[in-house]
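Here is a complete protein record:
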Amino acid sequence: MVIVEHGKPVGIISRGSFLRFIGNYLKTSDSVSPTLDSRAHLFQATDSLMSRLAQLRDDLKADPDELMTPVVCGVSSNRNVA
């Protein structure tokens, strides 16, 4: 999925990264059955994803000519990659 804002791509979520996220979430969850606690954790994870997408958008806006550094930093979770 390509995240678009004002007609310009600002982020990407691949099927693989989404499935990996869900798999990791289920592994760390106390229960696979949908409970109120699991739902709260899913909302927290969603907030984290939205925060990361906002950071990627801001990084891309900061330097419109640079594409690799914001993506590599996001994937590696290392804000110091240059």
Summary: Residues 3 and 11 are 5 Å apart (CA to CA). The chain has one domain: 2-76.
